[in-house]
């Protein structure tokens, strides 16, 4: 086969891919860019004084912090640029990696799985056109990200954020995008499904994060082997090394070449990893709608549980540094209510609880709205045409979501308690933390109730539930910092929850939230039972 | 006795009228063929019968019960196979078959293994790796393994190979022999011709013809090929003669059933040396109905 044959039609396919991503891709890029810019502006406000920045620099000596966000550098003269790069770059890079994995998997094996690629390949299009066009789209996205973030950061006119450093910052993100695009295309050749590819890619992302964590506090070789560790070695805004960027880009190119080689060797629709033989019969769990709901979301639920436990634990790990951190920062101390009689750790925990509750609401919504995804894919009718009442189907998903809400709240608080107690030596009793956590359940149920309502009455707009959660996060978490009017936060259920242990328990608002959740759920169920099932 | 009956069934999606008054009746122990091209309203009718869609107006009953209000109770006696079977990619075929059987509260008659064997399905494979035909088999096995009184089959053989189509036909005949009823929606007319006792033709959301194949044939034309000693003049101008083509002394044409007698008298005057006649196939019937009642009348 001539080489031109292999790549024929790549350009048109890339254009087509861009068209399909005309909403998804800009939303991803805008979210990453805007949150970077927004946080930099917040940092500029919060850490305007050198003493405040040096307090942060002190935390960079704590191994737990280094394990979480990467190594400290330039700590003697901790400029705003150095602070931003150390606090923000790693997590932004992870967001870019997630974007690359999801978009690439959709373009490569997603289309293969749904049979669209088969139609495209039957046209005069080369075997390698699909992976190359996917890579081209993501490369363009990475380039845009590099330029927009890089130039944008410079335009803020912050002294310590010069043009070279800002471009390096953008390039570190861009090259992370390239690397994870290449690795996802490679995994797409090994696995025969989107789930498999995304699973492998995310597992790889987690491994690179953990390798970097271990490397940053121990044997540094591990950090150099991890792309996430490597880009931090650019020491953006301090030393401005470009070689880690070049090295990561070269690794991405090699991985991509390997993926193309594998692609040209395998059959369409098959993966190179062998298929295991599955069960011949359904297990005891797979008896009804509830068992089915559990079974098809099992892996996702395990992953979320593990992730949220780690999130709680990582917040717990910084509790020990709080006292030193706040003691050095007069500005932050002034923000705390005077004579409240609570320790800094307790105040910090009350803020953590609302953040963790909102993050934990994501898997609760995902678990319930799977029912909507099932309808869209034409699978609910399998259940409903077999003497299962609609109410029972919906209740199965609702029950699972409620269990998930309990489970995630318990897991995050257990992680926080276990690690927090180790560093603070028994400052918190589990009961206090547990209460502070479960008190958010009624607010989470209101979000769930909204999802039920949307499913029952506006099934095409179920995404609004996530939008409302994002809104809540924005106004409740950042509202105080951005000095937004109070009524904006008042539109979110999370605003009505007392911030234990700092605030007093209040039965009235809890009852109100629970009733609101119940009313939304019942109304939603009524709608679901009488509407058309559109699959 | 009617097992399934709809009266003036109307379904509107916003401004679009998908069904404009559909009447069908399936009697006990018969196979009813529900035919029509894509988009004519077959699946919409079936989804109303299954309680997935709510009819805008009209009545639909199965075993004398309302299909919307008593859906759950009815589904204990109804087995359904959709034309496009989407399954959970991470469950195996065997697991899905068991799940489907578990979801019916009635016990099944334990033919699972026999059916898996007859349809030649590997139940240990994940559904994500199945071809369309194999996914179809999963739904068919679950349906025939269940002890249903009415089978609602919506283009059930799309994606099956001819060998498996034959297995399918055997199971449909077996079900009928046991006194069960079948609503078979299809656009594979040879299949309908083989299996169905009665057919209904749907077009743009309305039933335009229904009855036994015999009855329908009677309403329509018979194909003739005639060879005569002398050339037959002006056959075309005779009432009831259609599409006459002359090749030498051989003429092929279609004749309306009502005009058969005068046509045959006329041509016998020219000395018939060979005469072949064939009843119209279902395809002829179908095409004829669509051509005559279609928007673009010729």
Topology:
The complex is a heterodimer of chains A (535) and B (298).
Chain A: H1 3-7, H2 10-20, H3 24-46, H4 50-59, H5 63-69, H6 80-113, H7 116-122, H8 129-155, H9 163-190, H10 194-217, H11 221-225, H12 227-232, H13 243-265, H14 289-318, H15 322-327, H16 330-335, H17 344-376, H18 380-384, H19 390-424, H20 430-438, H21 441-457, H22 464-482, H23 486-490, H24 507-530
Helix pairs in contact in A: 2-8, 3-6, 3-8, 5-10, 6-8, 6-9, 6-10, 8-9, 9-10, 9-13, 14-17, 14-19, 17-19, 17-21, 17-22, 19-20, 19-21, 21-22, 21-24
Chain B: E1 2-13, E2 16-27, E3 31-35, H1 42-49, E4 57-62, E5 65-66, H2 71-75, E6 78-81, H3 93-103, H4 112-118, H5 132-144, E7 150-154, H6 162-177, E8 181-186, H7 189-195, E9 198-203, E10 206-212, H8 213-218, E11 221-228, E12 241-247, E13 250-256, H9 260-268, E14 272-278, H10 282-293
Parallel strand pairs in B: 3-8, 3-9, 6-7, 7-8
Antiparallel strand pairs in B: 1-2, 1-4, 4-5, 9-10, 11-13, 11-14, 12-13
Helix pairs in contact in B: 3-5
